Amino acid sequence: MKGNQINPRFIQMLTGRKKEDVKENPSIVDLKSDHTKVIVENRESLRPESLNSFKLKCGHCNQNGIYEVGKVAINVMDKKKPTHEDFQLNGYFRCKHCNAAGDWELPTDLMMLGITAMITPEKMADRCFVGKNAMFDGSSHRFATDGEEHLLDLLEQNPKDAFLWNRLGNLFQTCGRPELAAASFEKSISYQPDQLESQYSLGFLFEDVGEFEKAADHYEKVLIAAESYKEFDAPKLRDMLASTLNLLFCIHLKTDETIPFLSEYVRDRISEVVQFKFTRVLDWNPVLDPADYTTFYPLAEAFMGEQSKQIPKSEQVNLPSSGSGKKKKRKKRRKR
Ligand SMILES: [Zn+2]
């Protein structure tokens, strides 16, 4: 079988199988992921749209192939001309013939793309930029497959680290491999169901293939997990929740309200603190506008629970104090 372009080591880590039990060129079935299955069945094409396709030669088997290399970063400091080592290719690809990765001979036209981007960066901005790709831990890699190996090294030390599985999922997602991303995020939440970023990304992947019920289910889990999630600072957490609420609201609208916005499932699972704030926001009934995600801030802050207090005071949503609005109205009426 040709061209699955899946790392056998990824399969090993994902499924806990021994090296000798995994094929050198594994297929999607070997991922044993229900989430991947849904993505694969519903997506017209698993390959990213062509942005930068080049003919590359594999240093392992010496065979040529056309590969989508993704966005190109030229990691040069003060040099005038980039060398092969300065090229970082953001797309995830492995040799179609031998499934090896990271040992590529770069063609002249790709080198020329880099030089053009250095001379006229504005013309090339979509395809190539001067700078470098860095991962969450500051490490920087020439190929997405190198970044993957780095994360698999880290996972070998901590195989049940939901955060690392999330980072691996992010790598696959940004490098144009949603089916591998789905399997990684699924693994991440199997170890830590309240890994909010993995729940969000799964929601996003399912929404992308029109699986709205599944998407809403994962977005709701983001809301439930928010109160205890500590990986973000408070303003970033609020933005993420506002975006999640906005996406859920849009799913509610585009499914003719068959998928509820903030279902009983969510309401039954939030803490008393969140419940109290949530009820106050609902009583206040702010206008929600999908074109302006900040209109979801009051609800987002409610789901943050006590964490919302860490947002600078001047930026926090001011809810009308409970009951005061009604009293004022009554007073006015009496005067009349
Ligand atoms: Zn090869």
UniProtKB/TrEMBL annotation:
Keywords: TPR repeat. InterPro entries: TPR-like_helical_dom_sf, TPR_rpt. Residues 308-336 are annotated as: Disordered. This is Tetratricopeptide repeat protein. The keyword Hydrolase does not apply. The lineage of its organism: Bacteria, Bacillati, Bacillota, Bacilli, Bacillales. Residues 308-324 have a biased composition (Polar residues). Gene3D superfamilies: Tetratricopeptide repeat domain. TPR repeats lie at residues 162-195, 196-229. It comes from Halobacillus seohaensis. It comes from the Bacteria. Residues 325-336 have a biased composition (Basic residues). Pfam families: TPR_8 (PF13181).
